[in-house]
Structures are given as C-alpha cells and as structure tokens.
Amino acid sequence: MHSPTLIHRAALAACASLALSAQAQTAPDTPPASEGQEASNVLSPVVVTGSRINAKGFTQPTPTTRIDAVDMEKAAKPNLFNALAELPALQGSTGRTTSTNSTSSGIQGLSSLSLRGLTPIRTLTLIDGQRVIGANVTGVTDVSQFPQLLIKQVDVVTGGASASYGSDAVGGVVNFVTDKRFTGFKANVEAGQTNYKDDKNATLQAAWGRGFLDDRAHLSASVEYSREDGVPSPRFGGAGANGRTWFKNPAFQVRPIGQTGDGKPQYSFIENAQQFQYAKYGLITNGPLQGTAFGKDGVPFKFNYGSNGVPTGTGAVTGCVTPFCVGGDLSGTVGGGTTLGMNMTRQVAYTRGSFELNPDHEIFFTFNYGKVDSRFTPNPGAAKNDNLTIQCDNPFVPASIQALCAANNITSFKFGTANAEFPKDIEVNPVRTQARLVVGANGKFDAFGTPWTYDAYAQHGQNTIDIRVANMSLNPRYNAAIDAIRGPGGTIICRNPAAVAAGCVPLNVLGDVPADPAAMAYIEPANGPHQHSRQRQTVASFAVNGEPFSLWAGPVAVAFGAEARKEQYYVTGDPYGNGVSATSPNTPEYPADPLLNTAIGNNWYAGNYHNAEGSYTVKEGFLELNVPLFKSRDMGEANFNIAGRHTRYSTSGGVNAWKVGSTWKTGIDGLRLRAVTSQDVRAPNLSELFAAPLVVNNTVNYQGTTLTVQQRTIGNTRLRPEIARNTTFGIVLAQPKWAPGFSASVDYFDIKVNDVISSLNAQQEVDLCVAGNQEICAAMDLASATKFVTLQAFNLASMRNKGFDMEGVYRFDLGMGLPGKITLRALATHTRSFVTNSGVVGTIPSEAAGVNLGNTPKWKGQFSQAWDSDTANFTLSQRWISKGVYSNEYIECQTNCPVSTVVHPTILNNQMKGAFYWDIGGSYKVSKNLSLYFKIDNLTDVDPVAAPQTGTGYGINPFLYDVLGRQYRVGARMAF
Fold it and tell me: Which segments constitute the TonB-dependent receptor-like beta-barrel domain (predicted)?
C-alpha cells in the first residue's frame, strides 16, 4: 500500500516543529549534542572525539555521531548493520537486499558501510580503533562478522580522517567500540517476520564477563547466532513474492537517437514491460516464422505481443521499441524473480582477556570468529535473448514448424527463451569466514615531568571466502545439447560428434516439456562455478598520548604513533570459469571436454571466476596536536587541531595526509563554531593492483579503422592513491540556558576527490590515447602484428560531494507528576551536489545528487519521538527520502523535444518519487533481570518505488527504498 501524501507532510511538519521549537522547560544536565548527528532513537547526546587525542575536555572539529548500546537495543535489528545504514550520512551501504541480481560481483551478502555515497571502499571501518581484515578483494569489511552484543557504542566520523586513522577514510570512519570490562551475564532472544509471512528471522545472543585475581585479570566472551530466511523467488511472470502486488515490470523504452528529430522524447517510463526477444518456453524471433511461441508439450502458438505489436520478420515488432513492448504475454518475465532479501545465517564468537601487570600497565588479547552464509537467486531460468539458432531438422521441432520451414525455404530460425523448463533456479551461496587475533598492551607512564598514555597492538586476520553457484549451465554444452539430430535407429542425439563422444545428451527447449534429467546433468554439472579466496592482514601499531607542556590557555595535547601493515590475497576459480591454469581440466570434478574453452575459461552462463593474487605493505607514522588558543569569560575558548601522516606503500611510494581545524566555544551562551579542512587518501586496493589476468579478442575503432585486438585484462601496480580535499564547518547550539534540553547543529561539507581509480573499456582507452593521454597509450600496441589493448584501472576520474548535515534534539520531563521523559529529534543530510567526471572522451560530468536510481538523494532524514521511564519506553520514528529524478542529464519534455544526444537524452517524465516510512517500538521491564520488547518497521507497508532499467532488470533500488515491506519483531533481554 502507499501512504497518503498528506500524512507525510503533516508528519514532517510536526517533527520539524517539535525538534526545532523548544519550549523552556526544566531538563536534567546532559552533555550537548554538539559533535554532530545522532542515530534515530538516540537517547542521550554525547561528545565524542573522532581523534587520536584523548585529552580530557578536548573537542575536535570533525563532526562525529555516536550510537550507544541503548540506541542499538531500540533499533532491535537482527543485524546492527541495518540500524547504522539508516543514518542519513550513510549512503550506498551494501547489505542482504542489495546486489541480489548479481552472480559475479563478489559483494553479494556483504554488509559494508558507505559514507556520503562514496562507496564502502572510501569508508574506513574499525573495531576499537583497530583495522579489520577485509571480506572482499576490495578490502572492505563485513559488519555481519563483528561481535554485536558486546558493542557498547559506534562512533561515526562524518569527515575526512586519514591523517588520524589512515588510508581509506575519505568519506569518514565508523569505529565499533567494545565493552572491555563487561561483567555479568546478558542475553537477547528475538524473532520476527514480514507482513507477507516471509523473511522469518531469529536471533540468539549471549555474553558473559568476569574479573579474576582481585580484578587484575578480566575475561569476557559473547556468542551470537542469527538467521534471516529471506524472500523466496516467485520465479517467472512478474508476480511479486508472497502477495507483493507492487512489482509491475518497470523499464525504459529507448528509441534510437536517429529517430528523435520528430520532437518526441527518446526515453519513456513503462510498466508491464515485455521482452519480445524471448518467451517463457521459447519464441522464434526473426524470419518468416517470427512470433511463433511454444507452449505445453511443445505445441506452437501465436505469441501475444504487447502494444498490439506485429512481428515484421526482421526481428523488430511494430508498435514496440527494442527490446520492449508493453503488456501482452508476460509469463516469461524474469525481473520479478530476483530474490528481494537473501537468506543469511550469522555465527559469531568473540572473547577478550586482559591482565594488569601493575596499576599502570595492562596486556590483552581479543579473538573474533565470524561466519556469514548467504543464499539467493539472481534470476530464474537462464534467459537467451534472441541469440540461439535452431535447425529446422532438429527432431524436437514440431512437424508443423518443420513444414513451415520447408514452405518458406529456410533451414534454421533465430530463437530466444527464458529456459523456464529448467527444474531449479540458479542459487548463489557466498560464505565468508573470519578469524582475527589481536594481542596488545596499554598503560601510562611519566616522561618529561608529565603523564603519558600508550596503546599498542599486533593483529593478524584472515578471511576465507567461498562463493559456490548451483544450477548453472555451461554455454558450450547447452548450445551442443539443443542442437539435435536423428541418430542410428531413430534415436535423438547431439549433432556435434565431438560433443557426443564427450557425453552430450540432447535437450528439448521448445515448449513446456519436462527437461531430461540426464541432459540437465550434462549442461549443469554438480560442480558449478566456484571461487575460493583467502585474504590476510597483519598489522603492528602503537600510539602515545600526552600533554607535554602548557600555554596561556591550557595544556598542549599531542598524539603520535606508527603502524606497519601487510595486505595479501589469492583467488582461485574453477577451471571451467578460469581456464586450465586453475587445475587440470581432467579431474573427476571437472573432466576434460573438447567443447570448452580451456585457455581463458568463461564457459559458464554466469559466474566465471578467475585466478589472482597479490600483496603490498604499508608503513606510516602520524602526529596530531591540539593547541589551546584562548580562554576567557568574554571570548570563550578555542583550540587549534592539526594532524599529519606520512604513508609509504610498497606499490605507489609515499603520500601525505593532513588535517587542520579549530573549535570555538564562543562567549554566547551555548554557541560553538567548528571548522576543519584535510587532505585524505585512499590507496589502490588489492583487486585494482592485482586484478585477475584475462585475454580475449575484441575490436576497436582506431583513427577510422576497425582493428581486431587482444583485450588483456590485468591489474595496474602503477596506480597512485586517490587524493581528497575534505572541508567541513559548522554551527552548534548546545543546551543554552534559555532553552535547557535543546541542542541543534548545522555542518557544511565539501569533499573533492582527485585521481579517482576507475576502469575503462577498450574503445574508451583507445579514444583517450588518441586524445593524448600517454599513460594510457603505454597500455596498448596498435601498430605491431600482435595488436593489443590492456584493460586496467587508471587514475582518471574525479568526484565532488557538497551538502549539509543538520540535527535538532529536545528533551524534557513530562511534568505534572507524570512519569518519564520525552525526546524529540530531527536529523537530516542534504546533498546539494555530487559531481563525477569520468575523464572519458565524449562524456560530461554527471550530477548524482537527487538521482534516486542511485544512492544519494537530495534529502535523507530521520525523525523520532520517544518516551522513556524507568520501566518502559515507546518510540515513534520516521525515515524520509526526498523525491528525485532518474538522471540529472536527462531533458524532460513531452512535445517539441530537442534532438536527443548521448550525453543529454530526452525523456517524457524524469520524476522519481521519494518515500516516507513510519516505525514504532517499545519495551517493558518485567523484572530487574528481564525486559520484553517489540518493533514494527515500515508500519504502513509502503511499497518500493519503481526503478526502471534499460534492459531486463531488478526494477527496484534497495540502496534507497525498503523492498521487504512491513516487518514485525519481538524479543526478550536478560541481564544478571
């Protein structure tokens, strides 16, 4: 169902007025929310540092959000990642509802956080300030592998922090802080499901902690198990899963540019899009028999084209725009068959032990084990879009069609099918297993007459990633199996003798005919695509904090340290996907087959994984200073914060990151100003440096001549780090005396990233070489006998993201003898502009702000109204995404449209709706040790907004919109 617009507007107005029009009422003395935004349902705004300096009273200029244990409990999510991803500043995070239409991306089932829409590779995620081994070749971490019950807070630094924390902190840092001295026992049991009675989930968590030896030693541990069943694929036809009626096969009809001189738009949004290049059980797509489909028992029938279309015999259909008609026979639609939410199982174990050598020095260890097992269906069947040829003498071809072949003097016809006769859908099963050990020490000492603190650790982590794909077909075997003839004795055999010798079993794909199990076993061997990856990370780090001397306004604080790190990985693919270099192609699991390409692999319909390996080392040191500038009754107090870090990579050499900022607590009651500018870096990751090598043939146009070239895909070890300039300044009003309990902040951010690492296709590289880019010219040879173009990543693109973060929070007692407190909150991120320049010849900079097909809407907001007492709480909250467009480069017009161009296509309607969600939750303390709670997300069951594609696509955008519907959860928490 859809929530009424009037309700949306009323709620927005109410939240804004409640949060920003504070009444002067008595409130307890609580720390101000002056260091940035807070999560939805946050109870207590607190000051956090987001800096390596831990001096008492220090406030650093970079805005930071804190989410504490109470906030996490109120979110009541099976996975803490889901609560964090709802923060307005976090945009583009990946989870179990994203990338479910992908087989080979490698990020399926990966819960990774992204700030500012800069993607997870530019957000640094830490535990207790320590790096965590990546769960993907790009180096991003999987939050699902983290311990969650012993997390006492999460700090989100919403600004560049490379100088303080290191590489990858371009968008910011998310730091998970564990409860290092937890004592007692606590447990959580939770269960839930959606309004559609699917995605049933259960979570079990327990934690224990105790001190020993007069509390000099401490040991704590936690175990967690959670299971989310996901939403099953409804398979073909476009019907939503389990009664979801909102999916309507959305798509763009795109007319050829050459036809747009008629004043009509090139792009049009349609629903009930029908791919006319295939049908559920097969369709003749060209020639005199075009429009003949096959149904039950292979009986041919006239296909019902949408748009009242009539086949032309040339592959086109009148009234339709390739590849779509509107309406007609939609039984073969595959877009709605993509899994909406993965089946995911989490198993996590964590322990920490510490021992005080004396009151000033402690040694510790932590060990974390996390296993995340995901399963999903990217699409039903294995659609073949008008790319098959069926011979008329194929014995599976009905006699009536064979007669028509003879009458029309043809021997074959073009054919497309969704392969709905396949008994099982493709299933992708990524399993990520992390083992991470940290040993370290911390403490304090005196030097130069002042106290100092230190923190040192060594860490080794390994993530083993296995991606297995079941029910996947081999293209060469499929092509051989569907090409059948009559053999000796009238039996049906494969036409190719070599295929017959290798065990080919013919397959009938014409009509709704049960697939021969032997044929399916031939084209879909039990050992499907498989990628095995192992990533290792070894880190040694130390940091020292102190206040060596004082100035007129107070002590100068300093932090310094160094870190050494090694990152390495290797990946192996199965020989049918990778080629013979993976292993012998004549093993029992992967027998030799003359039909298969053993040189480069790529034999699977999808999921062709390739071998790769690589490593690099990092050495770096940092220094951070906080200098008090002045402190007086009239002027207030101000500090100057500066940090620098030098990093040397074994691949790209040295690079510097720095930060300069200041905070000023003015003499005006409650008013604080802050500003910071920094240079931040992201080093090229392992997959960019050491991509899997692959050689295929391709064609390019070079100075007007078409050339056949070797397309060589490799990594680029000459890549340079991305360099970002990150500037933030803000105004904070923190609980002034005239409005106790009220705080608000507004921060402006401007992030510019240069030398952005991006990959190009062969023609783009050739065009850039012709335009004079000598670095890219060095990656090809178009003059010799063996012509080649090397595909690899280059430092070509740039990005710039600008906007505002805003927060208002007001807390007050109910008064009049009524129990509890009320907390009203409104927070939002406004992305004013997000421009990307690809650096590719023939393109223009693209504006992503407000493109709701992407992940950076103009506005993303959260609002909450909470009542809390000693025994119960209740929270009503809202999530808001503003309306947007399909693309800022489109020109919207209905008539008299200009001629469409590649960079500025015309479109009939460029508007994409936003979304407004209501959530409610509450808890009741039954006894001292037991609390019961509930949570309902998407209370009004708001449908996801259609996200049209130009081909067979997902039809939704899970990066922005809720795709699961109303969700119910109940649970119990115990503490002793």
Answer: 436-939
Diameter over CA atoms, the chain:
105
Q: How many Cβ atoms sit within 10 Å of the Cβ of residue 461? A: 21
pTM over 0.85: yes
Give me the residue label for tokens 């032997």: 518
User: What distance in Å separates the CA atoms of residue 164 and residue 621, rounded to the nearest whole number?
Assistant: 10
Q: Which residues of 869-899 are buried (b: 16+ CB within 10 A; e: fewer)?
A: eeebbbbbbbbbbbebbbbbbbbebeeebee
Distance of alpha carbon 840 from alpha carbon 770, whole angstroms? 12
Q: Name the residue with higher pLDDT: 3 or 768.
A: 768
231 is written with which tokens? 């939403």
H helices then E strands: how many in the chain? 12, 49
Least confident of 284-288, 410-414, 489-493, 946-950: 946-950
Write out the two tokens for 572: 């192996």
Q: What are phi and psi of 716, to 5 degrees?
A: -130, 100
The angle at the Cα of 882, spanning 878 to 887, to the nearest 5 degrees, equals: 150
Q: How crowded is residue 561: how many other Cβ atoms within 10 Å of its Cβ?
A: 19
Sign for the pseudo-dihedral over CA of 853, 854, 855, 856: negative
Please provide residue 697's backbone torsions phi and psi, each rounded to the nearest 5 degrees: -90, 150
Three-state DSSP at 389 gives strand
Please classify residue 5 by burial: count the beta carbons closer than 10 Å to its beta carbon, then call 0-12 exposed, 13-18 middle and 19+ buried: exposed
Q: Which amino acid is at 960?
A: L
Whether residue 34 contacts residue 734, with contact meaning beta carbons closer than 8 Å, is answered with: yes
Nearest to 246 by CA among 950, 861, 913, 959: 913
How open is the CA angle 44-47-49, to the nearest 5 degrees? 145
Quote the CA–CA distance of 589 and 598 in Å, as a whole number. 15
In whole angstroms, what is the distance from residue 365 CA to residue 351 CA? Answer: 8
CA–CA separation, 224 and 349 (whole Å) = 6
In sequence order, the 6+-apart residues with CB closer than 8 A to the CB of 62 are: 50, 51, 157, 158, 159, 160, 161, 659, 661, 676, 728
CA distance linking residue 554 with residue 884, whole number of Å: 50
pLDDT one-digit tens code per residue, 691-739: 888 888 889 999 888 898 999 989 999 999 999 999 999 999 988 999 8
**What does the pLDDT average to over 601-614?**
92
Q: What is the dihedral of CA 334, 335, 341, 343, to 10 degrees?
A: 20
Q: Find the DSSP H helices in 612-746.
A: 686-689
Q: Quick check: 728 and 675 in contact, CB under 8 A?
A: yes
| Average predicted confidence (pLDDT) for the chain | 90
Residues, the chain: 976
